[in-house]
Write a structure and sequence with these properties.
By secondary structure, this protein is of the alpha/beta class. 39% of the residues lie in helices and 23% in strands. It is elongated, with a radius of gyration of 34 Å.
Length: 354
């Protein structure tokens, strides 16, 4: 009655008291109450659809694991899933499995599981991330009945296996990191310590520093990818080195006042294995023979002798210079494969460095 009383024409309709007026009031009341009912129905439908998708994901993931990884080739039980969950993180579907296993799974087996899950779900491989938590136990504890003979338990994961698992998780989280141009990612290092939070040190190649706002956005994205809100992220810029070595006419000897540029360039390339030297040499029209070739060789010999720069670190340009010069600059090596991270243990602080 209170709802109907709010309608401006309700008093007039009451006075009329006709059947059409009563029907109109009934229809208006039904219309007003159907809106929240419709919203509730939509919410319930969305929740049911989400639950169905989650159940389908869990069923597919469990089926793949039990069929391909749950048992040894001889049929004996190897592992079972104790926890399984999925979440959307950025543009990736992250599957987190906690398995109790009598034999630790290798990196190749992890990758195989990702490939099978990707094919089953019809999703690109790069859109799926896997966090596999393994709990090693003795194999007889997985059996439904006790075994009379004593089975020696599998050893716990080695430090190398734990390091590999950690580095794989970091690499998976950072593989989609894109720096604003002209900056290019060179390498990154992950350092853990019992006394300090996880530290990520990122080296990038750029003629200028990343601005503060850009760094803040990158730090927030990295912490989100790693699911580590307290991770410390530092950026280290590697600046390009460029310059020109000038020679006397008809000469290929490097003058003493030219070696400063070569030393600066050689030191930078020696300390950064992903850098190469782009080189183009030339000669004046009045010079006879091919002194440009000799000048290029002289520069290479100097850098190899003093800074151990190997021949495969050079990119020779075919530009024709009309002066007795050799032009040099550092460039980032182009490669289609990600570099393999190195791991070393700091014996003093107990840090794991990637």
């Amino acid at each position: 009655q209170s709802l109907v009383a709010r309608i401006p024409a309700s008093e007039r309709l009451k006075r009329i008291g006709s059947l059409p007026s009563r029907l109109l009031l009934i229809l208006m009341t039904i219309s007003l109450t159907s809106i929240p009912l419709y919203q509730s129905y939509n919410q319930l439908s969305e929740e049911i659809s989400r639950k169905q998708q989650e159940n389908q994901l869990r069923n597919n993931a469990t089926e793949i694991w039990q069929k391909n990884f749950g048992s040894f080739p001889d049929g004996k039980v190897r592992s079972y899933i104790s926890q399984l969950s999925f979440r959307q993180q950025k543009r990736k579907l992250v599957a987190q499995l906690q398995v109790v296993t009598s034999k630790v799974y290798t990196e190749a087996e992890r990758e195989q599981y990702k490939q099978l899950l990707s094919a089953k779900l019809g999703r690109p491989l790069e859109s799926i991330a896997l966090n596999l938590i393994q709990i090693p136990i003795a194999s007889n504890e997985l059996l439904p009945t006790k075994v009379s003979e004593t089975i020696k338990p599998e050893p716990p994961p080695t430090v190398a296996e734990l390091q590999s698992s950690f580095l794989t998780a970091v690499e998976s989280a950072l593989d989609s990191l894109i720096l604003p141009l002209p900056a290019q990612l060179m390498s990154y290092q992950a350092i853990t310590s019992p006394l300090t939070p996880l530290r990520i040190q990122i080296a990038y190649f750029s003629p200028r520093d990343l601005d503060r706002d850009g760094q803040a956005l990158l730090v927030e994205d990295i912490r989100s990818q790693l699911n580590y809100p307290t991770a410390q992220v530092n950026f280290n810029r590697i600046a390009p080195v460029a310059g020109t070595v000038t020679f006397a006419l008809n000469q290929a000897q490097i003058a003493a006042n030219q070696v400063q540029l070569l030393d600066r360039l050689g030191k930078t390339v020696q300390q950064n294995p992903k850098l190469q030297i782009e080189m183009s040499s030339g000669q004046a029209p009045s010079e006879a023979g091919a002194p440009a070739i000799g000048r290029s060789v002289a520069v290479r010999n100097y850098l190899q002798t003093k800074w151990q720069i190997k021949p495969d670190r050079y990119i020779t340009k075919t530009e024709t210079a009309t002066q007795p010069i050799v032009q040099l600059k550092t460039v980032l090596q182009k490669t289609s494969q990600k570099s393999s991270p190195s791991v070393q243990q700091d014996a003093v602080e107990g840090e794991l460095t990637r």
